[in-house]
Amino acid sequence: MPKDVLFILNKLNEEGFDAYIVGGCVRDKLLGIAPQDYDITTSAKPDEIKKIFKDFKTILVGEEFGTVGIIIDKTIYEVTTFRIDGKYLNFRKPERVIFSKNLKEDLKRRDFTINAMAMDSSGNLYDPFGGKDDLDEKTIRAVGSPTKRIREDAIRIMRAIRFAGRFNFYIEDELFDAISFESKLLKKISPERIFDEFSKMITSERPSYYLLLMEETGVLDVIFPELKRTIGFSQFSPYHEKTLFDHLICVMDEVKPDLSLRLAALFHDISKVDTLSIGEDGRGHFYGHEILGADLVSEILKRYRVSNKVIDKVKILILDHMKVHSEMTDKALRRQIKRVGRENVMDLYDLLIADCKCTRVDRDASFIINRKNRVKELLDEKEMKTEKFLEINGNDIKSLGFGEGKIIGEILKKLENLVLDDPEKNNREYLIEYINKNYR
């Protein structure tokens, strides 16, 4: 244990109180994973905790629920009194808590057995509900009644799926059934809490696993009914051997764990369901699905109160994911860089490569990889590094005798196209000569 954690435990013990690390940090230690943080539980009440650590700065993390934050070397350690939860309100949180002197009563209120273990400063494990055995057996099991645990706080549905995916564990049958039967309770949970859990899942190593679990339990239909429609949907194309849902989660697995990129991968073809038409050759066509899809994804993410920054990037990537013609000139690539932004264009090409790989096993993505490499080279051009890249501006054009009006914008647009086609023409003297020659 870190020395500051041991210091807190020992100091509480010296004052006559029981104290343990508890929950996820114990679970991770037993799994051989370095805990990201340490939660501490104690028989001391909040006012007693503050008195014991009067020489340190303390903050009220949630004193009404028994939690005091102790700051040591700029790190906050949360210390919580043993407690028994009162009646839960709105499937979210208890109306009140009752402080307890009993560790088992405190562990009893927790969600899953693997999170209901405590350890003292000597490393002794307290495990009244068999969490260690469930870790060994790779099982997610509720503490007590699964239905009761979920009805207390329905976000435990998402947490069970997240832990199962993170550790590659099996969800015990009774808990699995309770998740399936009670999945609609997620509608009573705030969108922010749901998306917080979901974002952790899809930025993990194997996001498809979570989506498949959501589909199997019925959770997907509750939180993303628009995505549920893609399950079993045939694309009627010799270039797509997967159903639409399987294609989407494959693409998500293939791209790096960036939230915006993973969201774009998951939703990039979501409106194929709305745009399917069958050609005379019997093949499926999805004209304009990227435009409809960008709008639909924006609605979905706004529903979950995702930041505008993330939504804007996801829309940019989806809108341009069909711009993958067999041949693209440097001029077209420069236009693409300007359109999507130099900060997004590499992620766009990662999406395009993954999209190609997830169509057929034998699909060759080398032409997109080669194009990505060319885009990298073009990004080094000075014209690609700034929005206003022309060597002249509107005032320069006015000084040539042109008055205010549309003509200034028309000339600038023409010059931009000229330079995008050939950056060597981005020369002040050449551009002025071009204007005098073509607009006099």
From TrEMBL:
Keyword RNA-binding: yes
UniProt keyword terms in alphabetical order: Magnesium, Metal-binding, Nucleotide-binding, Nucleotidyltransferase, RNA-binding, Transferase, tRNA processing
Domain HD: 237-355
Cofactor or coenzyme needed: Mg(2+)
SUPFAM superfamilies: Nucleotidyltransferase (SSF81301), Poly A polymerase C-terminal region-like (SSF81891)
Molecular-function GO term, any one: metal ion binding
Any single GO BP term: tRNA processing
PROSITE patterns associated with the record: HD
CDD domains named in the record: HDc, NT_ClassII-CCAase
Protein biosynthesis among keywords: no
Family, as annotated: Belongs to the tRNA nucleotidyltransferase/poly(A) polymerase family.
Stated name of the protein: CCA tRNA nucleotidyltransferase
